[in-house]
Amino acid sequence: MTFEERKAQVRYYLGKTVRIEIDRPIGAPHPKHPEIIYPINYGYIPEVFGGDGEELDVYVLGLDEPVEECTVRVIAIVHRSDDVEDKLVATASDGSYTKEEIERAVYFQEQFHESEIEILK
Fold first, then answer.
1. Which end of the chain is more exposed for a tag (fewer CB within 10 A), N or C?
2. For the domain that residue 40 is a member of, what is the CATH number?
């Protein structure tokens, strides 16, 4: 997948409502870096594959407890310039988030990458 194809794929989901399966719920350790504990739910859109060949990842905001799956609205994209994939950011609540609030929420993992956030307008 080229850089432009990757961008087009993730932009398609901005504003869309999707079902997410959670594979790293709140409180779960990162599978490769157990010192990183997920402060938010993190999952993927089943059967939709991202730039890394794995299912497209999603940070989920607006849920305060671990869940196995949920329906969310995609509100932002984390574009990674030093990686082969981007991440979606979605919310399970009706609330809105500023770019700064999203940056804080995903910092636990994005601090290790060169990334920028594109927010739904």
1. C
2. 3.90.80.10
